[in-house]
Amino acid sequence: MLDAIRELLTEVGYDRMSIDEVARRAKASKATIYRRWSGKPDMVAAALHGMITELPDPPDTGSLRTDMIATLTTLCRVYERKHPIVLSVLSAIRTDPTIGRLMHDHILDSGTAGADIVFARAVTRGELPALPDVPAVVEVGKALLWHRLLLSGRPLDDPWVVHVVDDILHPMLGLPG
């Protein structure tokens, strides 16, 4: 069902996507969909959240810097996949406060588990004296990512990832850039 939702969001957008069409594509009944979600906003938020929760554990490269680069690179690939879907939902966020709240709860407030692992390893290796404010670091990283993807239209490429880690996130952690 989540794949059907994502496909429809990309093809027709949030406003034109219907639960009937999701049911048809997913080969499920509308009752099955309504047992799982209360309506279209919840359904869409779950589809987008699922794209975040499908992330693998971050690799242990041996250093905080390279762990952060690897993790941010993986996030970039996920967000590139989400880009057309998020674009299809942007207009709905302005007119439907429910979808805006759900997007915030499922997308903007998610994704700290991988960062928790990265920073805990850095503390264990002695690269950080203590765990940082992980949600704040993740929030800054996501804000930069979304800004680049949605507003600048520039690629989420390797030089950009290295710039974010070296010039923004490392100094934020009190580490040299």
Structure commentary:
It holds the Pfam family TetR_N. Residues 18-37 bind DNA. GO terms for molecular function: DNA-binding transcription factor activity; transcription cis-regulatory region binding. This is HTH tetR-type domain-containing protein. Residues 1-55 form the HTH tetR-type domain. The chain has helices spanning 2-16, 19-26, 30-36, 40-53, 64-95, 97-108, 112-125, 134-152, 158-172. The model has no long low-confidence stretch (mean pLDDT 87). It is elongated. The chain has nine helices and no strands. Helices cover 77% and strands 0% of the residues. The chain is mainly alpha-helical. It has a single domain (40-172), classed as Tetracycline Repressor, domain 2 (Orthogonal Bundle), CATH 1.10.357. Helix 1 (2-16) crosses helix 5 (64-95), helix 5 crosses helix 8 (134-152) and helix 5 crosses helix 9 (158-172).
Quick overview of this protein structure:
InterPro entries: DNA-bd_HTH_TetR-type_CS (IPR023772), Homeodomain-like_sf (IPR009057), HTH-type_TetR-like_transc_reg (IPR050109), HTH_TetR (IPR001647), Tet_transcr_reg_TetR-rel_C_sf (IPR036271), TetR_C (IPR011075). The protein has helices spanning 2-16, 19-26, 30-36, 40-53, 64-95, 97-108, 112-125, 134-152, 158-172.
Mean pLDDT value: 87
Could you state the CATH homologous superfamily?
Tetracycline Repressor, domain 2
Shape: elongated
> How much of the polypeptide forms β-strand, as a percent range?
under 5%
The number of domains is 1
Rg for CA atoms:
18 Å
H and E order = HHHHHHHHH
CATH architectural group = Orthogonal Bundle
Amino- and carboxy-terminal Cα gap: 44 Å
- Percent range of helical residues: over 70%
Unreliable sequence segments: none
CATH class: Mainly Alpha
CATH-defined fold name: Tetracycline Repressor, domain 2
Contiguous helical run count: 9
